[in-house]
């Protein structure tokens, strides 16, 4: 009987110094899982350093190392999608190359997936040590908000690092949307997921490529992709201010009829105009966000463009 294949998808953006430590750790892990054939898919996401030449060099060393190299930086989500599209394994895992997704969890994940009826073994960080406090604070808030206002459930601290069955990956590939928010997609497709917990680990080398603003934008994208709550909120706000203005109008007219008061107070008027103007712009902005996403979706642009690749034939042994 031929061995089952485990595909490992590794997005790389400016990771020239982390690829070798990653491979040497993975080689140790491979010996713990002799029943599986490993194939790797390194995705060079338009790196500006020597990542591509490192990938070329390692892909010459062994048939199990494949790479796809993008024509520019398309983002980690695009890299994950490209990897999932190309992976041929019975099991598929996605992991970061910086060793923040501990490879030593892999044997346990494989065991859990094979022995139980799970379709996916995810991982979650139970600590966020080594990360700026403010980042952890906002991350926590983001998970709270998105879980409240969307139908999907995103586990706090869940990483993209996960081992999935072929069936689940095929389901994920059915979602061909341009604005990809993988954490949401993994949850949206359903299937039974079990989460393994681990403590945060710092990068082996290099620096995170996500700035605070990138993360903020990422969380807004996540909310817009998986919730219509901001749109509903705009409607509710509009309705409330409409009701309030009608009540105020009635109050003023009746008061004027009864007491014949001259209307005073232009400062309050200015405040109301500014408040309502601001609210309108805010709601317009919310609608604009959704419209913008829809606009990008309707263009049906490819999620990524490959400039260079090496795909070896899958060895059956
Ligand atoms: N990455 C990518 N494209 C990008 C940014 C990041 O493929 O535009 C990869 C990166 O090489 C790494 C993973 O995504 O393997 C996670 O990135 P990083 O370590 O910078 O993020 P963090 O761990 O801080 O969330
Ligand atoms: Mg990292």
TrEMBL record:
SUPFAM superfamilies: Nucleotide-diphospho-sugar transferases (SSF53448)
InterPro entries named in the record: Glyco_trans_2-like (IPR001173), Glycosyltransferase_2 (IPR050256), Nucleotide-diphossugar_trans (IPR029044)
Pfam families on file: Glycos_transf_2
EC number(s) reported in the record: 2.4.-.-
One Gene Ontology MF term: glycosyltransferase activity
Coiled-coil boundaries: none
Domain (Glycosyltransferase 2-like): residue spans on this chain: 7-172
Transmembrane feature ranges: 236-260, 266-291
Keyword field: Glycosyltransferase, Membrane, Transferase, Transmembrane, Transmembrane helix
Top EC category: transferase
Protein biosynthesis keyword on record: no
Listed name of the protein: Glycosyltransferase
């Amino acid at each position: 009987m031929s061995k089952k294949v485990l595909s490992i998808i590794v997005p790389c953006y400016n990771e020239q110094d982390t690829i070798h430590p990653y491979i040497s750790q993975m080689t140790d892990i491979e010996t713990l899982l002799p029943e599986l054939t490993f194939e790797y898919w390194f995705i060079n996401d338009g790196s500006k350093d020597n990542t591509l030449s490192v990938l070329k060099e390692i892909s010459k060393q062994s048939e199990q190392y494949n790479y796809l190299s993008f024509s520019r930086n398309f983002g980690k989500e695009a890299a994950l999608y490209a990897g999932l599209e190309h992976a041929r394994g019975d099991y598929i895992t996605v992991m970061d190359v910086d060793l923040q997704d501990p490879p030593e969890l892999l044997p346990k994940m494989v065991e859990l997936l094979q022995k139980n009826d799970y379709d996916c073994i995810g991982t979650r960080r139970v600590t966020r040590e080594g990360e700026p406090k403010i980042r952890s604070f906002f991350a926590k808030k983001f998970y709270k908000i998105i879980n409240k206002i969307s139908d999907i459930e995103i586990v706090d601290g869940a990483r993209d690092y996960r081992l999935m069955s072929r069936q689940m990956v095929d389901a994920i590939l059915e979602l061909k949307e341009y604005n990809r928010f993988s954490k949401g997609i993994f949850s949206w497709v359903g299937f039974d997921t079990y989460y393994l917990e681990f403590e945060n680990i710092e990068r082996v080398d290099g620096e995170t490529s996500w700035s605070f603003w990138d993360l903020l934008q990422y969380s807004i994208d996540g909310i817009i992709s998986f919730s219509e709550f901001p749109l509903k909120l705009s409607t509710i706000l509009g309705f409330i201010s409409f009701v309030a203005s009608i009540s105020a109008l009635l109050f003023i007219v009746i008061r004027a009829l009864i007491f014949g008061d001259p209307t005073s107070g232009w400062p309050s008027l200015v405040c109301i105009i500014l408040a309502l103007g601001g609210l309108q712009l805010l709601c317009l902005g919310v609608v604009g966000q959704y419209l913008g996403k829809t606009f990008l979706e309707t263009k049906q642009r490819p999620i990524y463009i490959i400039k260079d690749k090496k795909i070896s034939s899958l060895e059956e042994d």
